[in-house]
Amino acid sequence: MMKNIYAKKNATRHQRFVILVGLAIPVITGLAAFSKAVSHPILSQMRMRTEKLFGQAKPPVQENHAPVVKIINPAANSIYPENAQVRYEVAVSDKEDGETKFQEIPPNEIFLEVRYFASGSKALAASKQALKNDPPGLETIKASNCLNCHAFNAKLIGPSFYDIGKRYSFSKSHVDTLSRRILEGTTGVWGSIKMPTHPELTKGQATDIVGWILKNASDPAVDYYMGTEGSFRVKVPPASGGKDAVSGSKRTVAGDKSVSSAGKGILVLTASYTDHGVKDKPTERLKGQETILLKIQ
């Protein structure tokens, strides 16, 4: 009797197996046929025509966001005596590039401009100017490897931009000569250090760099600094003589309590960072900046 029971169970299992195999074969055969049909030339041609007519689905384009720049130190509207040494600290946050607090943004791509105004009203107007891109020459300096060997105010491997601007006046001959030296390299002009060639720059870019240096780098009312932190000295340009360094007007103050007493003048600090764009549009870079005022007593 036990043998009969086991025989019936085995028969039932065998029947189930046969049924499953019978069901599976059409499914496997159908999948194979579908796979073959999808790759059929006629269907492929139809798919191509459909994509041409309605457009092929494209992945979303990544959006670039402007960086947020903050001057942590010094505090806005602080008062400093002439010749005081001021520590500065700048923080940057960019959705695509990262944040300075995590060392994700190179410090040599963050800049601080310190500009002197004898007139409080002119300083206030300058601080409220709309965000604008750097001049082409300065923009190329920041984006290239110029700052590996040169600084704005101090000698590194090569001369500072300030010293170059003091040696050469702005003229077509000087622009042509210095542009050629940038592109082709030189030896012996500023000592024994050799200046390398720069084939990655165009003639127009080299001309823009030289033009900016000769027009702006030796301006006694402006200093430029690089990095997330550092220091600068509070100074009143000798040329100002109690007057605005640019226009020559006497010190006057108007329109804002923060500059209601200009004292010896106002420093306008502008920290800035230009991002690297996004993968789809790397050349479309966005700039962020913050501006504050300091008083000189």
Report on this model:
Helix 4 packs across helix 7. The N terminus is likely disordered. The chain contains seven helices and eleven strands. The strands form three sheets. A five-stranded mixed sheet has the order 2-11-10-5-8, covered by helices on one side. Strands 1, 3, 4 and 9 form a four-stranded antiparallel sheet that branches. The protein folds into two domains: 53 residues; 229 residues, Cytochrome c-like domain (Cytochrome Bc1 Complex, Chain D, domain 2), CATH 1.10.760.10. The termini are far apart. It is globular.
Could you estimate the helical fraction of the residues in percent? 25-40%
Please count the helical segments. 7
CATH architecture of the largest domain: Orthogonal Bundle
H and E string: HHEEEEEHHHHEEHEEEE
Whole-Å distance between the termini? 115 Å
CATH topology of the largest domain: Cytochrome Bc1 Complex, Chain D, domain 2
Q: What profile does the largest beta sheet have? A: 5 strands, mixed
Low-pLDDT stretches: 1-7, 241-258
What descriptors fit this protein?
Cytochrome Bc1 Complex, Chain D, domain 2, 2 domains, 11 strands, five-stranded mixed β-sheet, 7 helices, single chain, alpha+beta, four-stranded antiparallel β-sheet, disordered N terminus, 297 residues, 22% strand
